[in-house]
């Protein structure tokens, strides 16, 4: 069982579920309550949103591992599961089942919310994940950007489907032009942008870590094209930009600037880890050094997600 959980990357799935549940119950619903708007999406249907997201994410992880067997045998031979512990056909079957369940749930949600574009989205996501695993991840930045956009989409889906349900319940679009809607989208965009930047930084770090296997197998990732030195400089630039964006947001949004807990949280839970990550990247030489940096970047992403608890208190 543990091998199957490792195959679908259960830790990453937990972070995805945490992001979506915190966004809805610790931020979106408090915003709706503050502006006297009643949520329309039932707990069951929201759980279905999360379940569909997790199924599609898990299917993406499985198919990525499936096509990465040769690369992983070079970069991390002890962690190869498919072809060594789990049969290839079993992994492919699991991918198909997870994809089917995720798409089916997505189609159902599109029907009950009357959002036809969800059909396109839930069909396009597994297609993108498939082509990411076979093609896009082998190209400069394209794969990194696609995965980072999908990570941001995880956050956007929460607010989008909630207001789609509210709009249908109220038989009109007035709610979509309301203060509640604009505030909810504003805060969700902030967390989505943070998720995009954090994930993009981590994806590039992982490319440096996996450079040896990628190069042998004909990949054209950023560190292979530019070299480790310039790729590290780009990562440090992204981290610097993230820190600047963080503090510009702090001083620009009154709710943040007037909250002492936010000040301490931004310093201790985000700025200091970001600074440590920058130092780690600068000093990194070996794949294990970049693996450590990758784990630090995941902790930073988790810290950003946990901040949702504090953001939600602004509307209570």
Describe the protein in words.
With 316 residues, the protein is mostly helical. The protein has one domain (2-315). Helix content is 81%, strand content 0%. The chain is built from 15 helices and no strands. Helix 6 packs antiparallel against helix 7 (142-169), helix 8 (179-209) runs antiparallel to helix 14 and helix 11 (228-252) runs antiparallel to helix 13 (260-283).
Helix content: over 70%
* SSE-based structural type: mainly alpha
| Nearest-integer average pLDDT | 92
Counted beta strands? 0
Major sheet, described briefly? none
- Percent strand: under 5%
- The end-to-end span amounts to 42 Å
Number of helices: 15
Series of secondary-structure elements, N-terminal to C-terminal: HHHHHHHHHHHHHHH
Low-confidence segments, ≥5 residues, pLDDT <50?
none
Q: Tally the structural domains.
A: 1
Radius of gyration: 20 Å
> Rough shape?
globular
